[in-house]
């Protein structure tokens, strides 16, 4: 969703937008190591334009500033780990200064948006073909078992691993990596587990749910190799097959949902705001080289 035209008002304050975000992706759902919060901005400032993106990288900051955005809302935090300086001689400090100089706030919704309903994991499992309303969290949150990290659910009809991979390749943003797949392409799968972003810490949980295939990102060699060996070993049932997407691609499908939901909540509270979803590719890789084969 993109609502690019300035609205006649009344416009929300930044504090109003943060409250709306908290109602959609409650900040208390974030992991204890996370930094989902208002990172830059005055709570009393007025917000007319919001820019949504996965990563608060230089290109996205410039895009938001050039669009006249009053708020940049990103999935990934800019200041995830402690810093002692935001001087503009570093890329993080430069981003902070560019935002402040142009009156653009920065709000980050990371693992709270991973766990919330209609968040990152729901968007990813919907792209697989599973109704997110019928999907359950892989790791339910301690405060609410209806939400949590990852999702697992059942396709309306079984498909081959190749068909599911092709479906995701068509729906995820294009990246240099594309999709890496481990498993028999002709094997039929019906129970799907997903985790947007880095998900190789959840292999045992995925296996306990009996998933036929696991869709995630950032799969490292050793965890993926061990998962494959277990899946193909004696007494195992060949589960789960693995589909490894680029990190940013696995999370980007949430952005249009976020724009739609944020606009709806603000409108229900009497506010008008223009929201734009960035299509700038922020995956760090530019190209791949395939080794020649005889």
Automatic annotation (TrEMBL):
<comment type="similarity">
    <text>Belongs to the GTP cyclohydrolase I type 2/NIF3 family.</text>
</comment>
<dbReference type="InterPro" id="IPR036069">
    <property type="entry name" value="DUF34/NIF3_sf"/>
</dbReference>
<feature type="binding site">
    <location>
        <position position="75"/>
    </location>
    <ligand>
        <name>a divalent metal cation</name>
    </ligand>
</feature>
<dbReference type="InterPro" id="IPR002678">
    <property type="entry name" value="DUF34/NIF3"/>
</dbReference>
<dbReference type="Pfam" id="PF01784">
    <property type="entry name" value="DUF34_NIF3"/>
</dbReference>
<comment type="subunit">
    <text>Homohexamer.</text>
</comment>
<feature type="binding site">
    <location>
        <position position="251"/>
    </location>
    <ligand>
        <name>a divalent metal cation</name>
    </ligand>
</feature>
<feature type="binding site">
    <location>
        <position position="114"/>
    </location>
    <ligand>
        <name>a divalent metal cation</name>
    </ligand>
</feature>
<dbReference type="GO" id="GO:0046872">
    <property type="term" value="F:metal ion binding"/>
</dbReference>
<keyword id="KW-0479">Metal-binding</keyword>
<feature type="binding site">
    <location>
        <position position="247"/>
    </location>
    <ligand>
        <name>a divalent metal cation</name>
    </ligand>
</feature>
<dbReference type="GO" id="GO:0005737">
    <property type="term" value="C:cytoplasm"/>
</dbReference>
<protein>
    <recommendedName>
        <fullName>GTP cyclohydrolase 1 type 2 homolog</fullName>
    </recommendedName>
</protein>
<feature type="binding site">
    <location>
        <position position="76"/>
    </location>
    <ligand>
        <name>a divalent metal cation</name>
    </ligand>
</feature>
């Amino acid at each position: 969703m993109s609502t690019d035209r300035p609205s006649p008002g009344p416009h929300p304050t930044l504090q109003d937008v943060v409250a709306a975000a908290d109602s959609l992706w409650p900040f208390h759902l974030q992991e204890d190591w996370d930094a989902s919060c208002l990172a830059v901005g005055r709570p009393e400032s007025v917000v007319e334009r919001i820019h949504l993106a996965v990563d608060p990288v230089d290109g996205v900051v410039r895009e938001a500033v050039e669009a006249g955005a009053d708020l940049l809302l990103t999935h990934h935090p800019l200041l995830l780990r402690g810093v002692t300086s935001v001087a503009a001689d570093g890329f993080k400090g430069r981003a902070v200064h560019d935002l402040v100089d142009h009156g653009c706030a920065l709000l980050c919704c990371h693992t709270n948006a991973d766990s919330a309903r209609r968040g990152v994991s729901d968007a990813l499992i919907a792209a697989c073909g599973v109704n997110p309303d019928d999907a359950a969290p892989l790791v339910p949150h301690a405060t609410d078992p209806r939400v949590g990290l990852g999702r697992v659910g059942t396709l309306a009809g079984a498909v081959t691993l190749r068909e599911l991979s092709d479906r995701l390749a068509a729906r995820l943003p294009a990246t240099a990596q594309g999709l890496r797949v481990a498993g028999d392409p002709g094997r039929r799968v019906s129970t799907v587990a997903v985790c947007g972003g880095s998900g190789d810490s959840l292999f045992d949980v995925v296996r306990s749910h009996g998933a036929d295939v696991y869709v995630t990102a950032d799969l490292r060699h050793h965890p993926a190799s061990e998962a494959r060996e277990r899946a193909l070993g004696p007494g195992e049932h060949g589960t789960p097959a693995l589909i490894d997407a680029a990190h940013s691609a696995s999370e980007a499908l949430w952005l249009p949902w976020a724009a739609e939901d944020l606009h709806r909540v603000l409108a229900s509270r009497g506010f008008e705001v223009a929201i734009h979803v960035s299509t700038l590719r922020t995956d760090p890789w530019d190209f791949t080289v395939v080794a020649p084969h005889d």
